Amino acid sequence: MSSGCRICGGKLHEFLDMGKQPSANGFIDPAETSDEFQFRLALGTCVGCGMVQLVEEVPQERRYHENYRYHASGSVLHRRHFENEAGRLLGAELNGSDPFIVEIGCNDGVLLSTVAEAGIRHLGVDPSTNVVELARSRGVRAVTEFFDAGLGESLRDEHGHADVIFGANTICHIAHIDSLFRGVDALLAPSGVFVFEEPYLGTVLDHKAFDQIYDEHVFYFGVASVAAMAERFGFELVDVERTPLHGGEIRYTLARRGARSVRDSVGALLAEEQAAGITDPGTWRRFGLEIDNIREELTRLLRRLSSEGRRVVGYGAPGKTSTVTNYCGIDSDLLPFVCDSTRSKQGLLIPGSHIPVLPPEAFSNPYPDYALMFAWNHADEIMAKESEFTASGGHWIRYVPEVRID
């Protein structure tokens, strides 16, 4: 439970309550459904710094553990993106004498494996044992730890200052943000950069991407709120860049105050946010009404198809699947299974809704009439892979930014 803003201690204005939800990546064994953890999934915005964040939080030890189910290398799009990002960092920031990069939340080594191949000093930090082992198998040096002030100091003492501290889809997950920044402050070289890519608040708003809201995403970053956060902890937002992952993210670059020039991109995106009313509570009240309508339309469609004898299954089981199925009241009666290529999820149940997760082979055995696209951020990749489904007369159901049949 949070009594105030995790950034500045200001008052939180709650604007959205999505009810009781489980931990989104807490896929469960069919024999262990009786004592499932739940919390109230609600969002608020700070009246002081404007940071949008969860009102209640799930302890990090419950979210990240030895059986964490998300593997960043599972998508071709992700692999290519992080290979390119590694190449960008190698060319722009890791080209001095004996450079050093630390990645917070390295997952299975999707970015650092390219850095390792280049022979650059590096270290991955991740609290989940299973993904750290995968990273190590790819030649990545990694430790199983939560990053905080103490770890930042100990890594500096052992390895020296880092030229780059990087995080992708990680920094917004860390509730103890003050301790994280103290660790970054201790570890980062005077002229170094702290770079992180995260889901963008503007994307959630524009796409009505309510499924991006779940327990792991403690913060919902916008340019204005990240700039305020950086200033509070002695840093400065010096660059922002849009990236395509997860429907639209922002890559933020922070440096020590005055160490680098602020690029024009920062002011341009700040102006866009101001025009869009991204920090206006009224904007988010309207958002709540819009996603209520999406919930009603989606469940109405699934019930109609069921009553007509149509067979509908789900495609993709990312964490966002839990938000959709639980918020919309979708269970195995409406959706008998969801198929996913992540082996560690197969044979388990979607948290809360308890819909079985099956391997991709189940999708074509036989093809359903309709497929509900949960992994919509990989839609192009998936639809190209499953072109025979469409050729056989199958249809995709989408719900972002509106319910439609493709």
Automatic annotation (TrEMBL):
Chain ranges of the Methyltransferase putative zinc binding domain: 5-62
Ranges where the C-methyltransferase domain occurs: 244-401
InterPro entries reported in the protein's UniProt record: Methyltransf_Zn-bd_dom_put, Methyltransf_Zn-bd_dom_put_sf, MeTrfase_14, SAM-dependent_MTases_sf
SUPFAM superfamilies in the cross-refs: S-adenosyl-L-methionine-dependent methyltransferases (SSF53335)
Origin: domain of life: Bacteria
Record's protein name: Methylation protein EvaC
